[in-house]
Amino acid sequence: MIRSIVAVFVGFVVIVAVVIAGTAAATAAWAGPGGAITTPYLVANGIVSLVAAGLGGAIAVRLAPRLPFLHAAALVALLAALALPGLGGSAGQPAVYPAVILAVGVLGVMIGAALAARRRPR
């Protein structure tokens, strides 16, 4: 049980760390004057989110003691639970952007999980 919790938690921490670093880089490279959100920034943030989620999903699966896709599903549920309050959007972002980022996160976790499961010892 503890290993399962650790697997999901570590996957989540990896997602957060990569998103923070990637968002900082995207902001430095593509934010408009005064930090305004630009289309290149949104695209870069989407790509960073996909990569981060893929890494998090892969790590959760690799650390899972058994039932790897259940751990990926738990990571998806955690992402969704944390994203739900922000689905209303925020200033400067397109209204649909939070939902798109959530979908990208779900897709990324499942792709990362599938790739890691193929390499996982049985």
> Helices and strands: which structural class?
mainly alpha
Determine the N-to-C terminus distance.
19 Å
Q: Name the poorly predicted regions.
A: none
Number of domains: 1
The share of residues in extended strands comes to under 5%
* CA radius of gyration: 15 Å
Query: Helical percent range?
Result: over 70%
- The count of DSSP E runs of length 2 or more, i.e. the number of strands, is 0
Put simply, the count of helices is 4
Indicate the topology.
Elements: H1 2-30, H2 39-63, H3 68-83, H4 97-119
Q: Short summary of the structure?
A:
With 122 residues, the chain is mainly α. Helix content is 76%, strand content 0%.
Account of the protein in words:
With 122 residues, the chain is mainly alpha-helical. It has one domain. It is 76% helix and 0% strand. It has four helices and no strands. The chain has helices at 2-30, 39-63, 68-83, 97-119. Helix 1 runs antiparallel to helix 2, helix 2 (39-63) packs antiparallel against helix 3 (68-83) and helix 3 runs antiparallel to helix 4 (97-119). It is elongated and about 50 Å long. The two termini are 19 Å apart. The model has no long low-confidence stretch (mean pLDDT 92).
Features:
122 residues, elongated, mainly alpha
